[in-house]
Amino acid sequence: MEKRSADSQVKGVSTGTTILAATFKGGVVIGSDSRASIGGEYVSSKTINKVIQVHDQIFCCMAGSLADAQAVTKAAKFHLSFHSVQMETPPLVIAAASVLQEMCYKNREELQAGFITAGWDRKKGPQVYVVSLGGMLIGQPVTIGGSGSTYIYGYVDAKYKPNMSRDECLQFATNALALAMGRDNVSGGVAHLVVITETGVEHVVVPGNKLPKFHNE
Length: 217
What we know:
The strands form 3 sheets. A 5-stranded antiparallel β-sheet has the order 10-1-2-11-12, covered by helices on one side. It has a 5-stranded antiparallel β-sheet with strand order 5-6-7-8-9, covered by helices on one side. 30% of the residues lie in helices and 31% in strands. With 217 residues, it is α+β, with helices and mostly antiparallel strands. The chain has 5 helices and 12 strands. A hairpin with a 2-residue loop joins strand 1 and strand 2. Helix 2 (66-87) crosses helix 3 (93-106).
């Protein structure tokens, strides 16, 4: 993920990050790395939390411009909080994804951020949605994003299985992040993971020195 710099219009904005979400039997895991960079060259922070809670059981991961992503998620939190008060019930996951999609589409010429939204609701259970640059919205059982994702498409295709157990899915997500962080020079730090089920939310942080290793680094 990138923080805006004065010459970002010249260099362009790179999505220096790795984000993912995957459903399992009864829940969903969403996670990311924690590195922020400027221009894809200077690591400005190793401890950015890119997994943002927008409602009780709904989280989103952000990629792209940090300033844009934080502004959109802040507005989404307000919309969803107001919605839950009006409806007197928690919002659906698709509603949260639709709020993000609308803001991204309406501001598609200015925003440089994409999102993965994941959560659990009473209507459809665990769900994952992708809101890409420009405002496309699509639901998927598993998805990855950011510059680090290019290194792990093969792993995700080969290893993801529908209806995995919680522990299997958590290990799958941890392995995928570790592989991406080991290869992508603008992904790194720690792995932030959130497990969302009907019963609640669990935060898991895996330090960089505790991540699994698959090759000599």
